[in-house]
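Hi C.,

You asked whether I'd gotten around to modeling the 89-residue construct. I have! Everything is below, sequence then structure, no commentary in between.
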Amino acid sequence: MKNTLSFSAVGHATSLFFSISFFLCVVVSLLFPSHTMAKSLQELLPGFEWLTWKGFFLGLIESYGYGWYTTLIWVPIYNVLARRQKQKA
């Protein structure tokens, strides 16, 4: 049984999760302006501008990139720990 994770599968899944979450944050902020996430998004995403197409697409790209950044750190840690666990068994 294979106990390692695929970089490609986890990378794309995590990146899509972050991008969809960004999209939903923008939609919810537009529907409920009193609960806007604009300031938080501007702090988390360098160069992000609220309510511009450029800012929206930059936010999507950066969110996707953060997903790969998370994957590049998390998957090797998981794979090393899974390998050690398997060797102990």
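If it helps when you're writing up: The two ends are 13 Å apart (CA to CA).

Thanks,
B.
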